[in-house]
Amino acid sequence: MSDKHETQGMYPEPAFDRGGDGGDGAAAPIASLRASRRQFIKGVIASGAAVSGAGVLIGCSGGDGGASAGGVERMIRLMVNGVERTVDVLPNETLAMTLRYKLNLTGTKLGCDRGECGACTVLIDDVASYGCSMLTHSIRAKAITTIEGLEGADGSLHAVQQAMIDELGPQCGFCTPGQVMSAVALLRSNPNPTRDQVRMALSGNLCRCGAYDNYTNAVMRAAQNAAQNI
Amino acid sequence: MADFDLIGKDFTPPDIRAKVTGTARYAEDFRADGMLFCKLLTSPIPHARVTGLDTSEVEAMPGVMGILRASEVTPVQAPQETILTDEPLFVGQPILAVAAVDEATAAAAVERLEQLIKYEVLDFTVDPLESLFPGSKNARTDGNVAGFGQMQDVKWTAQDFAAAGDGRLPEGQATTEWSYGDVDAAFEAADLVLDETFVTQGISHHSMEPRSCMAYWQNGKCYLHASCQSQSFPLADAARMVGLEDHRDLVFIAEYCGGGFGSKGAAYPIMAVPALMSRKLNNRPVMMRISRHEEYYLGSARHGFQGRIRMGFRGDGKLTAADLFIIQENGPNQGFSDYTSAAEAVSIVYTPGAMRFRGIPVMTNTPPRGPQRGPGQNQIATAIEPLLDKAARQLGVDPLEIRKLNAPDSRWQYGPRQSGLTSAYLREALDRGAEMFNYAERVTRNGERNGSKVRAVGVGTAYHSAGFRGADGLVVLTPEGRLNIHTGVGNLGTYSHTSTARVVAEFLKCDWESCTVVRGDSSRHLPWTWGQFGSNTSFTTTRSNYAAAMDAVHKLKEIAAMDLGGEVDEFEIGDHRVYKREQPDQFLTYAQVAQRAIELGGRFSGEEVPDMLNDVTKAAAAGVAGTGLVGVAQDQLGGAATVPALAAGFIEIELDVETGKYEILDYVGVSDCGTVMHPMGLATQIKGGAVMGIGLAGYERHIYDPQNGLPGNVNLLDSKLPSYLDVPATMQTAAVEIGDPDNPVGAKGMGEPVQGCAAAALLCAISEALGGHVFNRVPVMPDMIVNAASGREPSHQPLQVNTA
């Protein structure tokens, strides 16, 4: 098994043609992240790729990715889990694919790859966001937090993670990283939520096992535990 | 109940930390050097034959490494599901696969092939009843009916259809039929007879993890990272599908599985594609990512029913006669036994004194069908339970009382062979639930209005068998003093791999901290057990693990008797020691005995094993032989009766008759699962089952366009699953907790009926809110509710299927 996936020989040479709608979005307010679906689609169209039912694809065929109209710089710096990473990113590449296939952060799951299930939820500047539905190029200069970034340096779990264990939150566990990330985002903006606020905040994360009650209990417990620790 | 140290206590599952930290690796999370990606070319037509395809242009595309065609894959016997085919039988069926250096190149190659491929369009159907009309079209060129039998071409007569009349299911030739008791006489004597035609829907499984898969070959072995509910059970079939004669040459890795619900219980055809492609391409690793769209087509679906039931009741509400006819929407392949299971469930849950069943599985050009949580039993619960309420209403009996009156007890004998049950406590489950739910008071509020909103309660019951026999167990006591519990149980999210492993620690009296559950990868020497389906694991694997533990206990005592003198039965175990009962200071530690077992060899250290063991277990035992004291045995504990899991659900809703929307105010679920193995695990299964039941009753369904045979709701947006906001804010759970006599710890399975009882309870509550209106169709969509509440005709025909 190899972890050498930050850059792969299979990709065409980076292009340095800046512009296009992907942009670096450095000044974009957090609120705009919530309504980025249109930007996302415009970005994909500008890069010459099609949004297909198969999802946005890994790699780039025939070397047209960087050179087409609206192409953007490919070697970009990302701030992921507090560490700056330089990554070769295609113009039409989603954050979920960059995380999973370039940075080997496979805790971010793909359940639908089209903004329906929430398994790919990550934090962008502390806001819960679907990693499958944003272009990596659009989030340069923002802080990305994935499930792998929650543990303390000493290996201690985040309060939400510990509560998920204590309340037997996960069943199959596939949606769990997304559920955890949505919960962390909620508690950062609202440390003392009601049960209904938890359900609302996590309602973008589907769970086919139906572990909603346990997940809700876990978030309530995490909030209580955090409050007691203050 | 017996007093256990570990069984019945909560524990922290060994795999849960990886699930909350993202380090759990599912099939698509693995990488290998030189990994290629493959994509599938799938059929855009419901039934067609590939008549021409020149692949040379695509093979020459830069980055394309190879194309795998149907002629190159392991053949199957019709009507089993193919791996790849040149005669696709449903939209989305894989025709070929292309491997390339990256996924975009593979996708571009598939896109070009889609332009080049030529099809002959063949007949199709998406309505089973329609395929029984005289002269109608068949889903397959070799017939329209199969199930587990031979392909047949069955057409009913015009007289059959005319005899039924409008809106009633015609009852022509059936391919399965059984009866018991004098059915005609029982109907003759009945005080009330209902004759109802119903439809239950097909539903995609929609597991959150699409069945992505990665495989490669190394030194003659195939390494397969699969998304699979089960671990040891699929091994033989998966090996055969990737072209191996010996399952020991397959390394099957399924440590985590992102949900299956029956669709990943056994080896499934598409799982073989990366391995076959890898073999073709000089063993290079191949990743096949399955998209959500592809998962809809390949991820299996629940069988739908077009059915009719006559039910004869005595004046007090006792069901005395039942006559059930089911046309099973079978999909294009062999399918599963839902329709026969449904009939058995009627015989068990409602205990009719006389019953007849007729059924026929009819093929359609829709996604392949397989078992989905409570396959058959849960569909029939959604059809029958509202009818039970209809009868109760006409007879002036309370809905709870009619269920208690008809519920089976442990002496009930069901079905055509009058089979026995190991233990059945549905009445007790209903009593327990009624108390927790405060049913007596809540039922008096039925019909209370608040503006356009009506309150109503519903009760539901359901059944599934809950255990098999004859699996194997394998445990190793090591010279380091540890207990390694090897299990072939897969990881489908129930934590049963560990709750059943704790049986070994219980009977070897080991501290749980000194135990390791070894699982998740066939190269870790895992014994054979049944798959993680059919609610069987808690019963099956407690028995086989108990057998292995007892084998280890006996060997401990044998070695102690050998070394310390005396007879085997003079020895006891405890505190990680084997000692003389009368002289506790005469002892050997487990670690010492394990060392002695290695020295003694033979059966003590697993070098000799019983011949009756499954080949998978023999290979596993050979792998651990010589590493300690090996306990290995097959469950020979006996018994033949059906192990029933029964469940009861209570629900209260507030339904808005103007919009058809309802709020679920409360839910109580009670399981008759014998001894509770893992209280938190049980609770989350009951609640999760209820969530799936809400979708089954309320909105999940297939939609097919009858004119073109095209699906209408492939993705999750159009095929809505229950979310946080669709289910009650809190739910309560309980268990009857009366042990099963056929299990060494009293355990039975429970995972499936907890869905059916919730779905039934919700449907009954909706009908109650509408003053007893029965839809005879699931799901009950809001437009159906609004039509019913306002006295309008429904927007579909009674037997129409796959409706929007």
Essential attributes:
heterodimer; A: 230 residues; 5-stranded mixed sheet; globular; B: alpha+beta; 7-stranded mixed sheet; 20 helices
Describe this structure as you would to a colleague.
The complex is a heterodimer of chains A (about 230) and B (about 800). Chain A is α+β, with helices and mostly antiparallel strands and about 230 residues long. Chain A contains 7 helices and 5 strands; from the N terminus they run H-H-E-E-H-E-E-E-H-H-H-H. In chain A, strands 2-1-5-3-4 form a 5-stranded mixed beta sheet, with helices on both faces. In chain A, helix 4 packs across helix 7. The longest helix of chain A has 18 residues. Chain A is globular. Chain B is α+β, with helices and mostly antiparallel strands and about 800 residues long. Chain B contains 20 helices and 30 strands. In chain B, the strands form 8 sheets. Chain B has a 7-stranded mixed beta sheet. Chain B is globular. The relative contact order of chain B is 0.13. The model of chain B has no long low-confidence stretch (mean pLDDT about 95). The chains are: A alpha+beta (about 230), B alpha+beta (about 800). Chains A and B meet through helix 4, helix 5, helix 6 and helix 7 of A and helix 1, helix 3, helix 8 and helix 18 of B.
The percentage helix of chain A is 25-40%
Query: Approximately how much beta-strand content do the residues of chain A carry?
Result: 5-15%
Query: What spatial form of chain A do the alpha-carbon principal axes imply?
Result: globular
Give a quick account of the main beta sheet of chain A: strands, pairing sense, barrel closure: 5 strands, mixed
Structural class of chain A: alpha+beta
User: What's the average pLDDT of chain A?
Assistant: 79
Q: In percent terms, what proportion of residues of chain B is strand?
A: 15-25%
Strand arrangement, largest sheet of chain A? 2-1-5-3-4
Order of H and E elements of chain A: HHEEHEEEHHHH
